[in-house]
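It is worth pausing here to work through a concrete case rather than discussing structure prediction in the abstract. The textbook approach is simple: state the sequence, then state the predicted structure, then interpret. We follow exactly that order.
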Amino acid sequence: MSDRLGRADLHIHTLASDGTAGVAEILDHVEAQTELDVIAITDHERIDAAVAARTIARARGLRVEVVIGEEVTTLGGHLLALFIEQPVRPLRSLRSTIAAVHEQGGLAVPAHPLVPYPLCAQSRTLRRLLADSDPLVHPDGLETFNPTALGRPWHRRAVAFATEHGLAPLGSSDAHALEAIGRCWTTFPGRTAEDLRRAIIEHRTHAHGEFHGTTGQLSMFARQLRKYGRDARDGIRGRVLQDGTGRDLGYPGGRYRPPRFEEHFAATHGARTRRPGEPGGPAGAATVPNERGGG
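Step two, the predicted structure:
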């Protein structure tokens, strides 16, 4: 093994939210086309695809480790909740959401921050949180390199803010399509997810990447529109036929309502997927939580 730093992309979306690729496609792409050691699946307001991705990656013995994450909508902007095991309730204050992430042992990182847009945490809010006497409400890092149209104009401000306040800088792709994965990345000492977690806490990360061109983003938006059309069609079809199906959530059993990941995963791996710590079950092979809403 070389002594290079580990590489992580901690902001990836799947078909379960507004991404255009399923879990298996993402894992195959990361293994074959990137040098990433760790990824986080961070769908909007849900973690079911992330749990499925981690279970599949472990079962297949893949090089890459999957961190369960979620992009949570707060009243103060989008927040990446990383290293979590349960969904985080959305539409609360940024302060209370960060506290909720920490209460379950996760790390909280504002996504595409400082952009003057309601979905982005603002500098005044972040300064107030960092000055709070309660460390439970302090963010753990800042997404200083986001290659999208939201991140590009404010990149330098985000870098300067993280440096000024001693926040771990993170580079993440905010990928909604396969080819975007790894376009921005975080380097850290070590190779494992636990090494990465430690590096974020100790502020020993570095952000890298390159910005999207306009053409590439327009192409991605077109694919998202096609996905939304398929989702609507499949949802309507399931309701009309009353056959217990809905839109594709991007993982085995993800067309059923409720999703049947455990059942379909077990059928291909010869045993029921057990909960972490359950006798006979592999460590961390968790069930997929019920999706929020109807998805």
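Step three, interpretation. Residues 6-211 form a domain with the TIM Barrel fold (CATH 3.20.20.140). Confidence is low (pLDDT under 50) at residues 272-286.
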